Amino acid sequence: MNVTLELNGETREVEVTPWKRLLDVLREDLRLTGTKEGCGEGECGACTVILDGEAVNSCLVAIGQCHGRQLTTVEGLAHGEVLHAVQRALVACGGAQCGICTPGIAMCASHVVDRGLLAGADDVTARAKVRELLAGNICRCTGYQLIVDAIIVAAREVTR
Ligand code: FES
Ligand code: FES
Question: Minimum-distance ligand to the CA of 99?
Fold first, then answer.
């Protein structure tokens, strides 16, 4: 099957079996290895990408479902040399963690920030909401405090 999609702002076409996982097509066929595999069964969020404006686990999506759709991966988060507000805040706050969990966290956080999901929330409510919205992104090693800090900083920057 020929699948055409808008990937990180460019039209890309790939010939694959329609049931191949989007995660594998990205990594193997399109050589975009920023999207990681953790659990492979929809539990960890490491493989998060943005499909038509929604954060999805690419390990659970078949490429055949992506024809004609808009997809952003972690490679498309920055605009040229300019990092996304979430990427800048993760670095500044010390919220960038390992190479497996961080790309998925950055993608899910960018979705939260870009969609204005924290708009109008006071600090306590915003923090609770971030924890809820990122509940599907798991780190097996450490805490989430600095990640939450970073997302709050990014959300404030974007709404300023
Ligand atoms: S690898 Fe997709 S959710 Fe864990
Ligand atoms: S899984 Fe990445 S730092 Fe824990």
Answer: 2
Give per-residue pLDDT as tens, 110-124.
Answer: 999 999 999 999 999
| Residue 44 Cβ < 6 Å to ligand 1 | yes
CA of 63 to the centre of ligand 2 (A): 27
Ligand 1 near 137 CB (within 6 A): no
Domains and CATH numbers, the chain: 2-76 (3.10.20.30), 85-159 (1.10.150.120)
Distance of CA 35 from the midpoint of ligand 1 (Å): 10
Q: Where are the beta strands (DSSP E) in the chain?
A: 2-7, 10-15, 48-51, 54-57, 70-72
pTM above 0.70, yes or no: yes
Query: How many angstroms is it from 146 CA to the middle of ligand 1?
Result: 22
DSSP annotation of 35: S
